[in-house]
Amino acid sequence: MATNTVTTVWKENMQFESDNPSGHPIVIDTSEEHGGNNTGLRPKAMMLSSLAGCSGLDIVPMLEKMRVEIDDFKIVVTGELTEEHPKYYHKVLVDYHFYGSDLDEKKINKAVDLSIEKYCGVMEMFRKFADVATGIHLHNN
């Protein structure tokens, strides 16, 4: 069974540094109004980035294998937090934006669907606690 371990070390104030299996550290912090220095990523927002990154890492190689050419690709993830503590994302919208001159809608939809339904483990984790909706947007140049 595969496992991942990260070590997170308090640096100062509300700032932490966390490593990951690739060895690249990240800084976690909060806003000045919450006692931080605004010098790092926020933990909950980082979860949304993880969701986008996981799905994107699935989609790009699938499109390459399908010989789909794109000029650009971005994923916009919006999470809505609950009002009560502990606040967590109960609604999440993942919008996939593809840019190019001759986008193959059928293949792009297939790659996104495979990521959403089969390969992206972070997406599956989010489904355990949030209502996740997705959208695919093709921007032909």
UniProtKB/TrEMBL annotation:
Pfam families associated with the record: OsmC (PF02566)
Name of this chain's protein: Putative redox protein
Stored Gene3D superfamilies: 3.30.300.20
